[in-house]
Automatic annotation (TrEMBL):
Protein name: Ferredoxin
Keywords: FAD, Flavoprotein, Oxidoreductase
InterPro entries: FAD-oxidoreductase/Apoptosis, FAD/NAD-bd_sf, FAD/NAD-binding_dom, FAD/NAD-linked_Rdtase_dimer_sf, Reductase_C
GO molecular function, a single term: oxidoreductase activity, acting on NAD(P)H
C-alpha cells in the first residue's frame, strides 16, 4: 500500500529518472512516486539510438529502461507526454502543461540535455536532423536506409561521439558520408589530437570523408529539400540530408526560472548540486546530464553527459532524497562502438589538462589502452578493443599516485601491479 502522505516527484523520464524511481522502491520508500516526462515513450536508453537501433541491428523494444508493466507493479505513477512548466518552491509543487498542480515533499530534476542547433540559413529544410529522441532515431534510420539505396549523401556537422557513431551506421547502409569539423581531429575535446588520428584513420578506411578546420555556414535547398552544405572556406559539399551533431545543452531552464543556483557556463552550465546531488534548495535534487556536480574526487564542478552517469546518479539522488549519506564521486565513464571498434573511457582529461599520452598495446591494430597523464598521474584511460580493464584504469585514476610511464606503456607489466 502506498502511503499518500509523502510524495516524491521526478521530472524527466530518461534513464536517470527511471533509475531513481526504481531505487526509491528498492530502498523501501512507501510514499507516492510520480514520474513526469514530456516524451510519450516510456523511459529508454539513448546509446542504441546512434548504434544498434540506428544500424537496424537492434529492436525498438530493446531500448526501454523497464518493461511497461513494471511501473504499475512498482506503484510508480507516470505522466508521459506532459512537460513540467513551472516549479513553485514556496508551495512545493510543480505545474504540468495541462495546468495540473502536483505537490512534492522531495523533487528530483532529471531533465537531461537537448541537441545544440546550427544557427545558419537552411536549418528549416526537411532533410536537416538532430539525434536525441527515439522518434529522431526512427526517422534517421529510414533516412539512412534510403540514402544507402540511392547512393545519397549525408553531411554530418561535428566529429564528436554521436557524429562518428552515425557516420559508422550510415556507412553500414552504404550512404556517402562527409563529416565537417572545426578542429583538426575528431573527438578533440575529449581525447585530444594524439589519439584522435586513430579515429580519423578508422573512418577514412570505411569511406568517410572528413573536412577538418571548417564550419557549416549554409544548408542550400530547393523546394524545401537539402541540395548541399556550404562551409566557411567556400566549399560546397553535396548533401541530401544533414545531421547536426554539435553537442548538447543542459535542459535547465525550468530550474533556472525557479531560482535554483546554476553552474557557470565555463563548467558546462546545468543545475549546480553538491556531492549529495542536492541543489541550492534542500528539497530539490538533480541527476543525470542536467546536474553539474561538485565532484569530490576531481575537485571541480563537472557535468557529465554519459549513460553511466545517468545510471548511477539517478539512484544516488534517490538515496539522498531518502536522507541517506551520499557522496557522488564516481570516475566519469563512457563507451562507444564504431564499426568493429569498441571502447571504454574512464576519467576526465580534456586538452590542456594533460602533459603526456601513453599508449599501451598496438594502436595500429586498434588494440590498446591510451592513458592521459599530468605530472605522471593518470587522469584518464581509454581501452580500445581490450576488455575487462576498466576497474584497474579507474583505480589508477582514483589513486592520484605518480605512475612510471614506461611501466604503464608496457603490456607485459600487469596493470594491477602498478599501484
Ligand atoms: C544518440 C545518443 C547516443 C548516446 N550514446 C552514448 C554512449 O554510447 N555512451 C554513453 O556513455 N552515453 C551516451 N549517450 C548519452 C546518454 O544517453 C545520456 O547521458 C543519458 O541519456 C542522460 O540521461 P538523463 O536521464 O540524464 O537525460 P535524458 O536521457 O535526456 O532524459 C531526460 C528526459 O527528461 C525530459 N524532460 C526535459 N525537460 C522536461 C520537463 N520540463 N518536463 C518533463 N520532462 C522533461 C526529456 O524530454 C527527456 O525525456 C548518448 C546520447 C544520445 C542522444
Amino acid at each position: 500500500m502506498v502511503d499518500a502522505h509523502r510524495t516524491f516527484v521526478i521530472v524527466g523520464g530518461g534513464l536517470a529518472g527511471a533509475k531513481a524511481a526504481e531505487t526509491l522502491r528498492a530502498e523501501g520508500f512507501s510514499g507516492r512516486v510520480i514520474l513526469i516526462g514530456d516524451e510519450r515513450d516510456h523511459p529508454y536508453e539513448r546509446p542504441p539510438l546512434s548504434k544498434g537501433y540506428l544500424a537496424g541491428k537492434e529492436e525498438r523494444d530493446s531500448v526501454f529502461a523497464h518493461e511497461t508493466a513494471w511501473y504499475a507493479g512498482a506503484d510508480v505513477e507516470l505522466h508521459l507526454g506532459q512537460p513540467v512548466t513551472a516549479i513553485d518552491r514556496e508551495a512545493r509543487s510543480v505545474r504540468l502543461g495541462d495546468n495540473t498542480v502536483i505537490h512534492y515533499d522531495r523533487l528530483l530534476l532529471a531533465t537531461g540535455a537537448e541537441p545544440r542547433r546550427l544557427d545558419i540559413p537552411g536549418t528549416d529544410l526537411v532533410g536537416v536532423h538532430h539525434l536525441r529522441r527515439l522518434a529522431h532515431a526512427d526517422r534517421l534510420r529510414n533516412v539512412l536506409a534510403a540514402l544507402g539505396r540511392d547512393n545519397g549523401h549525408l553531411v554530418i556537422a561535428g566529429a564528436g561521439w554521436i557524429g562518428l557513431e552515425v557516420a559508422s551506421a550510415a556507412r553500414g547502409y552504404g550512404a556517402e558520408v562527409t563529416v565537417v569539423e572545426p578542429e583538426q581531429s575528431p573527438l578533440h575535446q575529449v581525447i585530444g589530437p594524439e589519439v584522435g588520428q586513430i579515429f580519423t584513420d578508422l573512418h577514412r578506411e570505411h569511406g568517410v570523408r572528413f573536412h577538418f578546420g571548417a564550419r557549416l555556414t549554409e544548408i542550400v535547398g530547393q523546394d524545401g529539400l537539402v541540395l548541399a552544405a556550404r562551409t566557411d572556406d567556400g566549399e560546397e559539399h553535396p548533401a541530401h540530408d544533414v545531421l547536426a551533431a554539435i553537442g548538447a545543452a543542459p535542459r535547465s531552464a525550468l530550474a533556472d526560472a525557479a531560482g535554483l543556483a546554476m553552474a557557470d557556463r565555463a563548467h558546462g552550465g546545468g543545475i549546480a548540486v553538491d556531492a549529495s546531488l542536492r541543489t541550492s534548495d534542500p528539497h530539490i535534487f538533480a541527476a543525470g546530464d542536467v546536474a553539474a556536480v561538485l565532484h569530490p574526487l576531481l575537485g571541480t564542478r563537472l557535468r557529465v553527459e554519459h549513460w553511466a552517469n545517468a545510471l548511477n546518479s539517478g539512484p544516488a539522488a534517490a538515496r539522498a532524497m531518502l536522507g541517506q549519506e551520499v557522496a557522488y564521486d564516481r570516475v566519469p565513464y563512457f563507451f562507444s562502438d564504431q564499426y568493429d571498434l569498441g571502447l571504454e573511457y574512464s576519467g576526465w582529461a580534456p586538452p590542456g589538462s594533460y602533459d603526456q599520452v601513453v599508449i599501451r598495446g598496438d594502436a595500429g591494430k586498434r588494440e590498446f589502452i591510451a592513458f592521459w597523464l599530468k605530472d605522471r598521474k593518470v587522469l584518464a584511460g581509454m581501452n580500445v578493443n581490450v576488455w575487462d580493464v576498466t576497474e584497474h584504469i579507474q583505480r589508477l585514476v582514483r589513486s592520484g599516485r605518480r605512475i612510471d610511464p614506461h611501466a604503464l606503456g608496457d603490456p607485459s607489466v600487469p596493470l594491477e601491479t602498478l599501484l
